[in-house]
Design goal:
CATH topology of chain A: SH3 type barrels
Strand content of chain A: over 45%
Number of domains of chain A: 1
Helix content of chain A: under 10%
Largest sheet of chain A: 5 strands, antiparallel
Mean pLDDT of chain A: 96
Shape of chain A: globular
Low-confidence stretches of chain A: none
Order of helices and strands of chain A: HEEEEE
Number of helices of chain A: 1
Oligomer: homoheptamer
CATH architecture of chain A: Roll
Number of strands of chain A: 5
């Protein structure tokens, strides 16, 4: 699917698994529920990954957008 | 409950226990009273947790939104 | 008293003692005179606390809001 | 091609390979899909480069604009 | 005098000595000439204080507001 | 030529060589193509200079304005 | 001359020597050509001073306002 703006990558990922890497390098993987233009995100069944290993299971999680380094959206 | 935007996760958490992790890694757990779009929050019966251990009991607490890394809202 | 937005916690604290923790961890305790939406604050009879010990008595003090980590308002 | 504003350098790079250097010094190379005025970017077939060596293959990737130090756009 | 907003503490300090503590901990003391809503300040006969000792005499000085940690205004 | 605002220094530098020093101290020298009010810049035939020595040749380069410490524009 | 707002201190300094101290502590001295509300500045015949010693002569220089800690304007 062709994207016309960056947040389209999140629109097509709703209900799908995404991976969010924070500025600290820690990653959070979960099913994307919703997001806004600040990149605030809610993901569900979230897992915290440190160097690829699951450290914590966090359930539903509201992420503050300014923490985000990049997001790997749904891979079409 | 389906969320249509990230702050809905806080709307459904009013009066419920939430866990707020700061950018420093320190956590604050308490009953959510109110919040705004900057993620400024008031929680009550707040406890400060350092590596999972209660360090301070803080009562009612107004958190500046820019300190927030993520929030674990009410787990539906 | 029920709060409808975070700054209500400061409204009900005017003339009362509040404790302000800075991002550095240093705390300032004093009687809240006034505040604005940036969390700029004026407190009076301010004391600086480092690890709970009084370090300086500062009288009236204007705090820049972006320094604030959290505020313990009047405990109803 | 003459550019009349900085983001024109990205407009002419759509569908082309670009290299994005982050403030950390880490680089991401991929085919530019879309961008916005904050320099939020989506690149595809992204590779992470650390000191010039491929470290991770990331597929489609949404980059938060505030992480960007500079971008090497399509070299006309 | 009762204050109705934080910057009133500066209004009543014009022409009076104020002490400005920077985020670095360094202090500047001088006679307040003028200020704006960003807490940009001009003080005159400014002295730089490091741990309470005068390090430099700086004359008239324009301070960028984002450097300010707190200000001790005129003590009524 | 007299300047009436800071960005005039860039207007008169279009097509000329400029030197951009980043907050990190690293410098980029190239021919200025275009800029905007955020100090986002595109320079061409860019060279990266570390302590005055050429480290990388980067071709056309889009610089994010918030990285800039200062710019040495065209020296009239 | 009485100032009614902080930037008046720069208005009366046009064509005069000013000293700009950066957040890093490095200083730049030169003749003020122009400025804007962000404290972006152009100074001419600029010299970089490290601990009071001239390190570099930079000619005309455009300074990004967010680098500024304070400015010593024209001393009336």
């Amino acid at each position: 699917m062709e994207l016309t703006k960056p947040l389209d990558a999140l629109n097509i990922s709703k209900g799908q698994s995404v991976l969010v890497e924070f500025k600290t390098g820690v990653q959070y993987q979960g099913r994307l529920e919703t997001f806004d233009i600040h990149l605030n995100l809610v993901i569900d069944d979230a897992q915290e990954l440190v160097e690829g290993n699951v450290k914590r299971k966090l359930g539903r999680m509201l992420i503050r957008g300014d923490q985000v380094k990049f997001i790997l959206p749904f891979q079409k």
